[in-house]
Amino acid sequence: MGKAGEIFTEKLIQASKAKRIGNGMTPGVEIGPVITRESKERIETLIQKGLDNGARLLLDGRKINIPGGEEGNFMGPTILADVDSESEIYKTEIFGPVIILNNVDSLEDAIKLTNQSRHGNAASIFTTNGAAARKFRHDALAGNIGINIGIAAPMAFFPFSGWKESFYGDLHGQSFHAVEFYTQTKVVIERWHDDWTRKF
Question: Please, which contacts does 37-41 make with residues 24 or more away whose CB atoms are closer than 8 Å?
């Protein structure tokens, strides 16, 4: 982990605490509610299971108070550290404001940790080292790779590519794949002998 890990952890906590939570239609709000009460309960259950399996809670967003939003499904940013890679929360796509923070000692260890996940939606690296970026780009088993970009989820006119259990089907819903999905294709097979004319 080293000094960089300590600095990153503290800055991540500070940035998460500064996020404004509330009605997503309100200007300045950065985190709206999760989609349903059941979704909120599922996320809270996963967090607790992670803690029961030995994870450390660096920031708890489960008991957030939003004035006027008492009936809403609001959750604040939650950060868990030292999460067991065999625990349920580690193996689940949470779809909530939860970050799992596990530190490793090398780029190779980071790629190994990324690749052992059964999901492959996106993976990002932050670096000033071009060789490290190139290695991560080629070796990380995820459909969307971010280089110095936190969430590699582009606009609809860019391709988007989930891998492994982060995707079902054979075409993605953005960019050229979306065009192919809504296109009826035709295959034409021709053969022309040398003594036949090809003029029309």
Answer: 37/73, 39/73, 39/95, 39/96, 40/73, 40/75, 40/96
Domains of the chain: 1-103 (3.40.309.10), 106-200 (no CATH)
Q: Specify the DSSP element, H or E, that contains 76.
A: none
135-147 core/surface letters (b: 16 or more CB in 10 A; e: else): bbeeebebbbbbe
- Coil vs helix vs strand at 132: helix
Give the pLDDT confidence of 44-81 residue by residue, as tens digits: 999 999 999 999 999 999 988 888 877 889 999 999 99
* Maximum distance among all Cα pairs of the chain, rounded to whole angstroms: 84
Rounded to the nearest 10 degrees, the angle between the axes of helix 130-139 and helix 107-115 is 20
Please tell me the pTM assigned to this model. 0.74
| Tokens 């998460």, located at residue | 16
Report how far residue 174's alpha carbon sits from residue 158's, in angstroms, rounded to the nearest whole number.
Answer: 6
Residue pLDDT, tens place only, 163-195: 665 665 666 666 667 677 777 767 777 777 777
Q: In angstroms, rounded to a whole number, what is the distance separating the alpha carbons of residues 82 and 102?
A: 5
